[in-house]
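Q: I'm writing up a methods section and want to include an example of the input and output format. Could you take the sequence below and give the corresponding predicted structure tokens, formatted cleanly so I can copy it straight into the document?
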Amino acid sequence: MSAGADDPLTPQLTLRKRFRLFASVIVVVVALSLLKTVIHWTGLEFLTLNALFTSAIAAAVFIIGFLLSSVLADYKEAERLPKDLRVAMEAVHDDSRVFGRDLDAFDDRAVAGTLLSILVSLREALEPGGRQLEFRPVIEHVDALTDRIADLAAMGMPPNYVVRLRAEQASSGAASSGSTTCSASSSSRPSTSWCRPW
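A: Here is the clean output for your methods example:
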């Protein structure tokens, strides 16, 4: 489950992509500054600097800051979700691999393939130019883990491990769909209707 430099799941961010927003803002600021300088030199200013004008600017800055403060929680959530998804998927992969390594009837490649399908479909849903924000395939692949967990339960996996795998499955679904309302059932063959982003 580790991603190398040539892993197709690892996004290759160029210097241009990293600083695209910064460069765009700099261009706009420079353009506006030049426009303000030209207007000042030519004497075309129609707004004089007074108490009302400065108060309007301060009010606008306050409102913008107030609006951006609510967005900060979304950025924190966006930073936390990839970590939660990785931890949940690694737990599912490691537990199933360790349990099934002495069982000839169990093939851990099926679980690994399902987990890889989740990552591939999630990247396709998030990358620009693709099926952006289409999370239905992601949740379908997360639901497919139910069959893999049921196979483990049929082979004798202890119920507490099954419950843990179901909880990690729920965490994967919640992280991949951006929702924190998904919850797992404690039964060994539960229903797959625990989370839907639509």
